[in-house]
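Section 4.2 – Deliverable D4.2 (structural model, holo form)

The reporting period included a commitment to supply a predicted holo structure for the target in complex with flavin-adenine dinucleotide. Inputs used:
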Amino acid sequence: MYDVAIIGGGVIGCSIARELSRYQVRTVVLEKYAEVGFGTTKTNSGIIHAGHHSSPDTLKGQLVVRGNTLFDQLCSELNFGFARIGELVVAQGEEDIPVLEHLKKQGENKGVPGLEMWDQKRLQREEPNLSHKLVAALHAPSAGVINPYEFAFALIENAVDNGVELKVDSPVLKIDVVKDGFVFHTPHEQIASRFALNCGGIFADKIAQMVGLNDFTINPRKGEEYMLDKRLMGLVRRLIFPVPKPTTKGILIIPTFNGTIMVGPTAEDTDDRYDVTTSYDGAKQVFDFVSNICPSITERETITEFAGLRAVSNTNDFIMGPTNIKGFINVAGIQSPGLTSAPAIAEYVCYILKGEGLVLKPKGNFKHHVPGPPRFGTLGIEEQQKLIKENPLFAKIVCRCELVTEAEIHNAIDHGARTLDGIKFRSRAGMGRCQGGFCTTRCMDILAKRLGLSFHEITKRGGDSWIVTEMGKVKNR
Amino acid sequence: MLDRMEGKYDVVVVGGGPAGMGAALGARDSGAERVLILDREPEAGGILWQCIHSGFGLHYFREELTGPEYAERFFEKVIDYEVDLVTNSYVSGISVDSDGTKSVRVMNEEHGMDTVNTKSVVLSMGCRERTRGSIRIPGTRPSGVLPAGLAQKIVNLKGYLPGKRIAILGSGDIGLIMARRLTLEGCKVAGVFEIMPYSNGLTRNVVQCLEDFGIPLHLSTTVAYIHGLDRVEKITVAPVSKDLKPDMSRAWDVKCDTLLLSIGLIPENELSLSLGIQMDVVTGGPRVSSTLETSMPGVFASGNVLHVHDLVDFVTRESLLAGQFAGEWAQGVRRPADNIRLVPGDNVRYCVPHSLSPEREHTIYMRCKEAMMPCRIRVGNLMERKLRFVVPAEMIIFKIKPDLLDKFHGDTLRIDILPAEKGKRHD
Ligand SMILES: Cc1cc2nc3c(=O)[nH]c(=O)nc-3n(C[C@H](O)[C@H](O)[C@H](O)COP(=O)(O)OP(=O)(O)OC[C@H]3O[C@@H](n4cnc5c(N)ncnc54)[C@H](O)[C@@H]3O)c2cc1C
Ligand SMILES: Cc1cc2nc3c(=O)[nH]c(=O)nc-3n(C[C@H](O)[C@H](O)[C@H](O)COP(=O)(O)OP(=O)(O)OC[C@H]3O[C@@H](n4cnc5c(N)ncnc54)[C@H](O)[C@@H]3O)c2cc1C
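Output (structure tokens):
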């Protein structure tokens, strides 16, 4: 019997797992995919928001600023990719300036540090590649960018190090409410716990329905993102936001943590919870909009694209707290800025659990740190040489676009990668401009050898995402 | 073999495909003593190892060889010619010292990170395939969408199949060859879809790989949508209008578990770019003089890294020449700078080299923008040649003799491909 079962291993479930692992609590995470973070957590803009965009009257508006401030410490402990590069909300005409002033005031009231208005001259000096038609900007230095999947991987690894149990490939299909807790049915087993945390992202309402709760709905809102070629690196140095307009949600220019520029997201309601498709319309919307702000960005530079689903609840806010079913706690409706708020959500959930009667006794031996993965391609030659001396596999290039070495692929597997995507999101192999053309078979060779699998048993991301099939087994003709 | 990678070289060749091997032989022929080939794969031969079909060497050896056979012939010569060959070695950077010496940085599991010094360099890194991202197909992002060359590697070198029911986007040669290969392995190839009104592959491949197997080729048609969450389940294909946009009102679905992309190759020029070499935005390769020298003195280029070739025979010819000039350069020979600039004119997409010198014979490699038949090539007002047809998929090659250039006093020479003049006969 576990004390707490966390349903859903996205960034929210992983953050809570790590927070709970500070205490003498038996925790299990149940995730339906082959690895954690494969839901919305790996398909978002990767922004750690400063917090001035959302109203303080909402739960998301309150948790975002606290979340932001926790990232420096988290990053130093868990070593994921994170940098405070700052953000600019840019005014396309004089009429936008009052909105900037409103955002500034709203932010200052919420404690967002360092907000500053820039005039056109300053804006052009700091970001010379933006359109010269822009008239002013609001600068928020505390905004940052993160590799969200690395964050989730590091959180769960640290949680597991501190005693949390992780069960992947374990979709919760049915929940029995029993005398002092719950029994969860997965395809492999039944698991019992006293408390249940519903962190199911886009499926949170369906999970609530498993215990008979019908008091909220999740209405997915899709966002398409477009990743541009490395040669545009450095085109903008900060996150670029348009002034939010009532009609458009705002399409952003995002210099990701690794420097590659991404543009998006769109915002389109969908009733299909599996609709992570990109579209001609979405691309047109993104590039038409962005080219007004930064004329050198064109659709031709795209190297890959993806879409993610925001778990928008019917209240348009986070839905967090105890329910009519004792011990069943919702952590639902975690739309943007959910990634930013995750650390604050984790604290808040512990507080809720305490209120519900869970005793949180700190562990004496909590381990704070996870070593970051080695990043050969980002190092200077001397450091590279040092690594090669320690391990010659650092001299064996597996991914030539991102300069990822064989040692890093082994490291990714050591730290939990079980699929090609698991390797890609941990080591960056396959993320560059050739999109895996070169490294796919190399990564498969290593995965096969390390996990004792045949080539045809390897998947892209679990489930039915097989990559190759055996010869001589085809009888279509 | 790495122990032989010592001291200073005359010529270092980056990449050991057919271009690299040709360049090394050319360099030895020119009298250069110390020549080294570096390749990141376990063996020299480049892309040829996975091209187990025949059709190589028809021009150069006047024999029909398979890719590996073609590679082996050169490999033996490379050994005979006492070229140093070091494999499993990734070239991660090249720099030029103030005295013109080039330092080539190599990474190798056995020897770590090493630097080789050389007088001249030949770039022969080949090319890579364009991917889904570069043409932007909407839809889901399942497993089972892959470049045709990767599929070829999976089948021919790994012994697995990329899927069972295959659709192919793009009619490049690799896609055509894979259509046949997979059919022979028992897969069902549902069709090849090409956005242009003509095939992008060699005519012989359309006939031998599609027509002979009853595989439909849909021209002016593209893949407009990919379906399937984990694995491809089907694709939506649609005819395109004049502006190449899919006409969804006439779209239909094709059931398949795999979508191969044969949509073009991109010269692999990260190293060239890091050297600050001037590039041709059309070919994606370096701009080169008539000695195949790039804008960086002593750095030469040949093969698919320079421009994408359709036949390996031409790669060999070009690289022998590049090697020869690189070898000369290492021995201190300096050719006079070219003084005639070649300019692509009507219906010419590109031509290589980018400039000429009047004292030698030149081979010009070029491609047209659109198919034309019959037609003529006009080189300034120096020469005109009739051609039965030109198509973008087939490289056009012709020679310019030095005596022609003797009479020429301009500094730019424009090449046009024009419709044949009616009623006028050319020889
Ligand atoms: C396009 C886009 C851009 C965004 N940009 C930002 C941004 O820049 N900054 C920011 O702060 N936020 C951003 N967000 C929001 C942020 O991504 C989310 O708030 C956050 O990822 C939510 O995490 P999660 O753990 O709740 O959801 P998820 O990552 O979706 O995790 C839920 C998990 O539950 C699992 N699950 C579901 N059902 C079951 C079941 N029955 N049994 C077991 N497991 C189950 C799923 O497999 C999944 O892994 C963006 C969102 C989108 C879509
Ligand atoms: C699928 C396919 C089918 C073909 N079919 C035919 C056919 O039927 N008939 C025909 O005549 N031609 C055919 N060709 C064309 C012909 O094979 C190519 O034009 C020729 O191989 C190009 O030679 P290359 O040396 O320029 O490039 P490659 O063969 O690609 O060789 C480049 C080499 O450089 C190495 N390299 C690259 N970067 C580095 C680095 N940084 N460090 C170290 N090494 C590096 C690579 O590993 C590779 O070995 C085909 C080509 C393909 C891809």
